[in-house]
Structures are given as C-alpha cells and as structure tokens.
Automatic annotation (TrEMBL):
Keyword Iron-sulfur among UniProt keywords: yes
4Fe-4S ferredoxin-type domain ranges (all copies): 40-69, 77-109
Protein name: 4Fe-4S ferredoxin-type domain-containing protein
Listed InterPro entries: 4Fe4S_Fe-S-bd, 4Fe4S_Fe_S_CS, NADH_quinone_OxRdtase_chainI
Length: 205
C-alpha cells in the first residue's frame, strides 16, 4: 500500500519548526510571554481611575464591585474591586471608562491560578468627598476634579465643584466653619450632595 505524500503546507511548517524551534513555550520550565494582542485580565490604574463606577455598571458578569467606607472627620474611601475569577475579558470596562479608557485596561496577564478562590480579586482605593451638611457621599474627589476639568469655567456655577478645586489647591481652609450654623443660606456655599443642594436652594431663606 502506498503511503500518502505530505501536503506542501505541512512540509513548509515542518521545515520552519526545524529552523525556528517548536511553536509551544516551555512553560512552566520557562516563563510564558503572551502574544501582544492577547486579551488578559483587566488592571486598574489607581492614578487614572476617578472612581465613577461606570465600569461596574457596564460589566456584564458582575466582575466589578465597590465598597464605600465612610469616616466622618477622617478619610473616607471607595474601594474598587475586580474579581479575577468572574471576569470574561470582554473589555467593556475599558471601552466605557470615562478616564480616556485609562482607568482600567485589559492586560496580557494570563496567569490566574490561585489556591484560595476568596483571594481572586484586585483592588484600588479612591478618596471620597462627603456632603458637608448630611455627611453622605457626593463622589470621589478625583471624579469632581475630572468634572471640573471637563466643563472648564462652568465649574464656577457649582459651589461643590469650585470649593473642591480651591481646597485641593489649598486656597480654602478645610476646617473653615460657617459662622451661622443651620442658617440655611450659609450652607449654600458648601460642598453638598444633590439632595442637600436642592434643600438649601429651595428652602433656605
Ligand atoms: S473585561 Fe468584561 S467581564 Fe472583565 S471586568 Fe471588564 S467588563 Fe467585566
Ligand atoms: S474611571 Fe474608569 S476605571 Fe475608574 S471607576 Fe470610572 S470607569 Fe471604572
């Protein structure tokens, strides 16, 4: 019986493999470097992320969550959590990131093995701005800064935005206390959540 001759393409591949070596990597003996276009797990960039939660809203599998820790008269923070065992690497978080798609980005990190599933997450922290009347959450400080930069001089139409900026620049004292407590009118020039802004605007005399 006559053996079938190898196809030309297979012959070329065999010659290439003889010259270049095998296509497969020697992992785990040698570290494996993924292809530059490999879609690996997303990574947060704590410098660029503004803590807006858009990525959490668009994630189709709930691989992103957040936790807010409120400390009155201390540093309140938002923790962004990415669950690496739930992520499907779809890239929706990166595509919808308001920080020019830099707050979270797909990486070529493919190594996802772990012994304890409870440890399969990564986090970053962002400082929160609290309402100076009710103590509720306004937004992350970096998010307020991001809005100010987007709208430019219109920032001066919102005391919350311009006071945030002035405090960041050190122009306004953090501990400045309004001289008339519960007057209402003086509360207007404070960093406020949407509800308190509405109340001081609609009801203060
Ligand atoms: S890549 Fe997709 S699944 Fe993973 S965190 Fe981003 S949006 Fe969620
Ligand atoms: S800035 Fe980007 S990465 Fe950060 S919370 Fe918003 S959407 Fe997510």
């Amino acid at each position: 019986m006559k053996l079938p001759l190898p196809k030309i393409r297979e012959l070329i591949e065999a010659i290439k493999a003889l010259i270049k070596g095998p296509y497969t990597s020697k992992f785990p003996k040698e570290p494996h470097v993924a292809h530059r276009n490999f879609r690996g797990q997303p990574k947060y960039n704590a410098e660029k992320c503004v803590g807006c939660l858009a990525c959490e809203m668009v994630c189709p599998v709930g691989a992103i969550a957040h936790r807010d820790d409120i400390v009155q008269n201390g540093m309140s923070k938002r923790t962004m959590i990415h669950y690496t065992d739930t992520c499907i690497f779809c890239g929706e978080c990166e595509a919808n990131c308001i920080a020019d798609r830099e707050g979270i980005k797909l990486s070529n990190d493919w190594e996802l093995s772990f012994f304890d599933r409870k440890q399969a997450f990564e986090t970053i922290e962002k400082e929160l701005q609290l309402c100076e009347v009710c103590g509720g959450i306004v937004a992350c400080k970096d998010h307020l800064k991001w809005v100010s930069e987007k709208i430019g001089e219109l920032t001066y139409s919102s005391p919350t935005l311009y006071l945030s900026r002035l405090r960041e620049l050190g122009v306004v004292d953090e501990n400045l206390v309004a001289p008339f407590k519960d007057c209402g009118r003086s509360d207007r020039v404070k960093i406020l959540c949407a509800q308190c802004r509405r109340q001081t605007t609609m009801t203060a005399q």
